[in-house]
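Problem statement: downstream parser choked on a complex file, so we are re-checking the raw output for the glutathione run. The parser issue turned out to be on our end (a line-ending mismatch), but while we're here, posting the original submission so the record is complete.
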Amino acid sequence: MANALLIVGNKNYSSWSLRPFMALAMADIPFDEKVIPFGQPTGNAKFTKAVKRYSSAGLVPVLVHNGITIWDTLAIMEYLAETWPDRNLWPKTKAARALARSACAEMHSGFRNLRNACPMNLRRPTNPVPMNAAILGDVERIESLWRQCRKAHGKGGPFLFGKFGIADAMFAPIVTRFDTFEIKVADDTQHYMNAVLATPAFHEWKAAALKEKWIVAEDEVD
Ligand SMILES: N[C@@H](CCC(=O)N[C@@H](CS)C(=O)NCC(=O)O)C(=O)O
């Protein structure tokens, strides 16, 4: 049976692409990968045309597996959990899954202040940018959500639900933003961030990102 194919954007910038990569790699699911560079500006016709060969939505990430195409990060995550149930990508108990799914959905649709002000940019030298109340509100909410997950279900390891899972993959780009923009966080948040940043999957992704030469001006924040 052919490997799953994950189609991603620039590894330096594509926060949505990082998420399914982290889930696949940390779950040891064999997959191939195709990088489609964004070009300039993002949303340009060349990029969209290349992605539309796989998904008519024209956005990355896209997963293709056994003749099935799945696009949009949360749908990809659900497909992975359903297709490889032995990898326990969602936590085992119903209560933990409900919390994990809620956290992932909140991530998928939220935290726009932080996301807009601090775009993922893995090669950016780490230094802070001015924070306003709206960005700090997102940071505070994320820290409290991570704390809630860890407190209720994190006994079995350093991740949100103990073992690495979909919720960690969904928040991995936030971890990089907190790190890159030197956002002040509590000790328990830093401890969780260190665990994500130390994963082999993140190391692999970042090493590839740092080799990229493409610049996306709109994601470069001084
Ligand atoms: N909600 C979508 C977001 C996908 C998305 O916005 N992808 C960005 C890259 S991180 C993209 O393809 N941008 C290119 C464009 O806007 O044309 C998901 O969860 O996958």
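For whoever reads this later: The pocket of glutathione is lined by residues 9, 14-17, 42-43, 47-48, 59-61, 72-73, 108 (CB under 6 Å).
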